[in-house]
Write a structure and sequence with these properties.
The chain has 302 residues and is α/β, with parallel strands linked by helices. 44% of the residues lie in helices and 13% in strands.
């Protein structure tokens, strides 16, 4: 099964890119979610990480997500088995060399993402590929600096949990080609996602709005305006948000939110994105949200 300009394989923008194999670099929360939806969509998936234990946990998480889908009648047993069979895991980057689309989901550091891109270029040899970064706020143009083919570098920002959230933010760097944008849009649609296209500006659309709301909610909590639960309930019931900003911060990770806030504050130069003391203090105390067991809420293992 292949993808060109659209799901039906018609000609037009993006038709030069045939995507059959997707390599996902990083087996963390976002990485294994991206691997799952790609495999469910019929792509051959190579999930690569340096940590074998993290890979094992990732594969267990994918299987658990699919089992829950079966229990809820959203996924058939055949679909579950087919999805799992479409995923191959490895710690060896050379095993990804034939992939048509690389989706990078490594930690949010520009230099690490650049190093990942350079390593992929070296491993791929002369094979043609698209490099999509799942960054939520970093500059696509900066990540593509020094790349052999910067026009094939694009942002493809998924949302957590990937198998449930429909949005994919396609971020266009200064040199990203229109054909690459169309190709990854086609991939997102085949994954049953709703893609939006944004310019390469700090925070893009989603993180800029989401972080601003989250930081203001933290300031309100810090000032004693209301409890974390009541602040979240105000947005859930008053504005029909599926999840309040503080609970969402716990799921994203307080350390991740702090990192993005500091980046936006530095790049945009506005006090709107200055991290409140409560966020910096909680991160310093190791209260990172769900992954550490405590953030604005206390999380218990099921």
């Amino acid at each position: 099964m292949s993808t060109t300009a659209d799901e039906k394989g018609s000609t037009g923008p993006g038709a030069d890119f045939t995507i059959e194999t997707v390599a996902v670099l990083g087996a963390g929360t976002m990485g294994h979610g991206i691997a799952q939806v790609a495999a469910q969509s019929g792509y051959r998936v190579i999930l690569r990480d340096l940590d074998e234990e993290l890979i094992s946990r990732a594969l267990r998480a994918v299987a658990a997500n699919l089992s829950q889908g079966v229990e809820r009648g959203k996924v058939t047993e055949d679909e579950k088995e087919r999805t799992l069979s479409n995923i191959r895991a490895t710690t060896d980057l050379s095993e990804t060399s034939g992939a048509d689309l690389f989706v990078e989901a490594v930690p949010e550091r520009v230099e690490l993402k650049r190093e990942t891109l350079r390593a992929v270029e070296a491993a791929a040899g002369g094979h043609s590929f698209i490099f999509a970064t799942n960054t939520s706020s970093l500059s696509i143009t900066e990540i593509a600096e020094g790349a052999g083919r910067p026009e094939r570098v694009v942002g493809m920002h998924f949302f957590n949990p990937v198998h449930l959230m429909r949005l994919v933010e396609i971020v266009v760097g200064q040199e990203t080609s229109a054909e690459v944008v169309e190709a990854v849009r086609s991939v997102a649609m085949r994954m049953r996602k709703e893609p939006i296209t944004v310019r390469d500006v700090p925070g893009f659309a989603s993180s800029r709005l989401g972080v601003a709301l989250g930081l203001e909610a933290m300031r309100m909590l810090e000032e004693g305006v209301a409890s974390a639960k009541d602040i979240d309930t105000a947005m859930e019931l008053g504005y029909n948000h599926p999840m309040g900003p503080l609970r969402l911060t716990d799921l994203v990770g307080l350390d991740v939110r702090l990192q993005i806030a500091d980046y936006l504050h530095r790049k945009l130069g506005t006090e709107r994105f200055r991290a409140p003391d409560i966020l910096r203090r909680m991160v310093g105390e190791g209260k990172l949200g769900k992954k550490s067991g405590e953030g604005f809420y206390v999380w218990e293992e099921k």
